[in-house]
Design brief:
- It comes from Solanum chacoense (Chaco potato).
- By secondary structure, the protein is mainly alpha-helical.
- It has one domain (about 1-60).
- The protein contains 3 helices and no strands.
- The chain is elongated.
């Protein structure tokens, strides 16, 4: 149980610090890292486009 809590803490810390591509996630998910990183990168780019267009709209109005 404490091992799961430790993993959750690591993952949460990586997400909140926007540092999910670090070596720690490779240690946690060695087999899936490349796929996870590519998916996260796509989502991050998509999310930044939304945020950028939203903030631009708010600034102009």
């Amino acid at each position: 149980h404490s091992t799961f809590s430790h993993l959750s803490t690591i993952i949460t810390h990586k997400i909140t610090s926007s540092n999910i591509f670090s070596s720690t996630s490779e240690e946690v998910f060695p087999g899936h890292v490349k796929l996870v990183n590519e998916n996260m990168l796509k989502r991050t780019v998509w999310w930044r486009k939304i945020v950028a267009s939203t903030s631009t709209r708010n600034d102009s109005s």
